[in-house]
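testing teh design pipeline on a random one, pls ignore if ur not involved
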């Protein structure tokens, strides 16, 4: 990117983002790199950085599988490996081992997980991993990171001898300790350690009665520390053995260092990959903190931000537990330049800085706090003029400085430039400065530059409404309280609410009237129109919001009604079936009652029995037919259901078609279809239903 400098960084407060990103780095190299973040020139490298950062973000959020990137860099150790006969420390070997083990864990992540992160998978496949180096180090060090006894035969022998001498020292000390204790020679502690030697704590009055080497006294002189004479030679022998142990350990570590030097290429690859991962995980963790996304990239110049936040404002509001109002901003070939107006403290500058800071983050390969379906491109340069940049060093006024900046902009801007001008046209006589600002605006527009401009100057607002590829916008205010809502409204300029704000702050009407008389009637009329327009816009937005809420509530009530109707119809059908069954049982009961009356206990009742058999046969046949009919109906319903599942073609859902509601199973007829929504009549009740919620019956 051209013209990337510290002024751009300061204007957009990008240094705060750098500091924040560096705080997520694990090691100094990545932290230093984050503090020097700058736009990535190579397009493929830029795409790769964004892609793998986004993948790492998803892996970190899925912490159940992904191991923490916890390691220590070992660049100094790699330098040592190039020096002949060098010896790495125990800590150095531990750092190297942890790095190798981390790469091993990352390379062995499940295949199903790796399939969803192709950039990360490719990085891991490019990094060589050797279990031999890992095993060689673990063969030397134990779990407590001490050199094992088995690291060499000589070390094993030395440590056995050390253990034997220590046992003799302990045995002698305990014998002498008991003797002195019994004679009352010892102080309260009885024993102590001095110069890594176990000594007796003897009352100074008895020091000549204890044979040994005096190593020191207490601060008061009351206690004398004596090394028993029986242990003097043994302690000296132990010191020599410790020296032998250190010398042998050095030989072992020297051999291990030489072995690692033969694998320095592998270790360099591991270290480089770890540093890359540290850089990338810092980007990913920053994205998580900012709720940032990898938005859609466009080769054509465009800034289409949806639900976008200024990252620093978002974090500050998060601490204060205050909601941040999202911004929706669109700059494309049809509306390349946006002029934002409105009263001070309404959020104009924050909106402008949001565009600039998010663009700068994007250019540096950072994800941005905006919706995933936002669209951004890369610009050749971002040019800013924000705040009071009076130059004391060069004795330039704010206006002189801005004129020099504007000259620079006119020389540098092109169709792939993004210009951000805050309080455009200020610093000089309103009429003269406004006229010059209007000309500058026209020149930048003629260069097909993209830009966001905040201003109070009416000529700039008027010019934006006249130019085909420019657009006005304003920050909305509550028209009753004049409190800012921090919402950007596109399509019309905003009033500065100069007199309204002054009135609310207690400025007398008489002074306001005198001020208005000093302005042209056309100026007052225009400002009044803008004020009225913004009030109407605010009222309309409020009305639309209420209408949307009412529509949602009505839709919810409609769905609830349809659900209840379906349940009621189902209940009525069950009750009707139960009533029919009960009536049938009553008829059968009456018929059986008549047979009982006709039955005579004293006769054979031949006629009655014949009639009973005939009745039972007819009833049995009727039931079998009903059962068969029910089975056929069931098969028919299954076939119909199978047919319905096959017939979901929306083109067949036209007026007159019979359909079934997916949730309530109600059957109705389509009256009309508009787009993806059908008007369906369920009996006398009509409602609008989305086509995807309907099944076609016929």
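output:
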């Amino acid at each position: 990117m051209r013209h990337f400098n510290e002024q751009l960084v300061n204007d957009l407060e990008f240094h705060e983002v750098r500091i924040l990103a560096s705080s997520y780095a694990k090691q100094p190299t990545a932290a230093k790199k984050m503090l020097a973040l700058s736009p990535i020139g190579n397009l493929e490298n830029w795409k790769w950085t964004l892609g793998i950062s986004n993948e790492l973000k998803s892996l970190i959020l899925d912490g159940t599988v992904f191991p923490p990137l916890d390691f220590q860099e070992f660049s100094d150790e790699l330098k040592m490996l190039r020096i002949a006969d060098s010896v790495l420390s125990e800590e150095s070997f531990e750092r190297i081992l942890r790095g190798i083990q981390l790469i091993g864990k990352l390379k062995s992540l499940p295949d199903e997980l790796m399939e969803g992160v192709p950039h990360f998978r490719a990085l891991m496949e490019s990094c060589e991993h050797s279990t031999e180096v890992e095993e060689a180090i673990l063969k030397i060090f134990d779990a407590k990171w001490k050199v094992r006894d088995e690291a060499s035969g000589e070390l094993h022998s030395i440590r056995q001898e050390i253990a034997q001498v220590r046992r003799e020292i302990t045995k002698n000390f305990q014998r002498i300790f008991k003797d002195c204790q019994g004679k009352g020679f010892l102080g309260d502690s009885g024993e102590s350690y001095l110069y890594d030697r176990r000594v007796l704590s003897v009352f100074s009055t008895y020091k000549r009665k204890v044979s040994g080497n005096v190593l020191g006294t207490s601060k008061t002189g009351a206690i004398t520390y004596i090394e028993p004479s029986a242990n003097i030679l043994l302690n000296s022998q132990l010191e020599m053995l410790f020296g032998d142990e250190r010398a042998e350990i050095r030989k072992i570590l020297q051999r291990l260092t030489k072995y690692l030097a033969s694998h320095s290429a592998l270790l360099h690859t591991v270290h480089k990959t770890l540093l890359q991962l540290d850089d990338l995980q810092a980007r990913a963790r920053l994205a998580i903190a900012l709720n940032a996304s990898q938005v859609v990239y466009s080769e054509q110049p465009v800034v289409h931000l949806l639900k976008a936040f200024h990252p620093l404002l978002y974090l500050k509001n998060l601490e204060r537990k205050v909601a941040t109002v999202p911004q929706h901003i669109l700059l494309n070939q049809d509306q390349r330049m946006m002029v934002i107006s409105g009263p001070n403290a309404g959020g104009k500058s924050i909106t402008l800085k949001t565009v600039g800071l998010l663009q700068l983050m994007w250019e540096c390969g950072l994800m941005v706090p905006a919706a995933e379906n936002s669209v951004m491109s890369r610009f050749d340069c971002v040019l800013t003029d924000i705040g009071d940049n009076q130059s004391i060093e060069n004795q330039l006024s704010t206006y002189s400085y801005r004129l020099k900046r504007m000259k620079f902009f006119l020389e540098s801007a092109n169709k792939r430039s993004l210009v951000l001008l805050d309080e455009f046209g200020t610093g000089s006589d309103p009429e003269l400065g406004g006229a010059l600002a209007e000309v500058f605006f026209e020149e930048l527009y003629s260069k097909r530059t993209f830009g966001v401009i905040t201003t109070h100057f009416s000529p700039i607002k008027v010019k934006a409404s006249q130019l085909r590829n420019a657009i006005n916008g304003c920050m909305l205010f509550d028209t009753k309280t004049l409190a800012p809502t921090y919402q950007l409204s596109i399509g019309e300029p905003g009033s500065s609410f100069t007199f309204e704000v002054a009135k609310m702050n207690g400025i007398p009407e008489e002074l306001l009237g005198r001020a208005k008389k000093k302005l042209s009637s056309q100026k007052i009329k225009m400002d009044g129109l803008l004020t009225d327009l913004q009030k109407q816009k605010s009222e309309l937005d409020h009305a639309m919001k209420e209408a949307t809420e009412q529509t949602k509530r009505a839709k919810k009530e409609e769905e609830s009604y349809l659900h209840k109707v379906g349940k009621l119809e189902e209940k009525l059908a069950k009750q009707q079936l139960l009533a029919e069954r009960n009536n049938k049982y009553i008829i059968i009961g009456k018929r059986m009652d008549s047979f009982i009356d006709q039955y005579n206990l004293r006769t054979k009742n031949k006629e009655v029995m014949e009639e009973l058999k005939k009745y039972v046969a007819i009833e049995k046949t009727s039931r079998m037919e009903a059962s068969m009919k029910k089975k056929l109906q069931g098969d028919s319903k299954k076939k119909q259901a199978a047919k319905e599942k096959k017939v979901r073609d929306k083109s067949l859902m036209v007026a007159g078609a019979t359909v079934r509601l997916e949730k309530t199973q109600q059957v109705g007829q389509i009256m009309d279809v508009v787009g993806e929504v059908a008007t369906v009549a369920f009996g006398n009740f009509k409602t609008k239903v989305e086509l995807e919620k309907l099944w076609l019956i016929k």
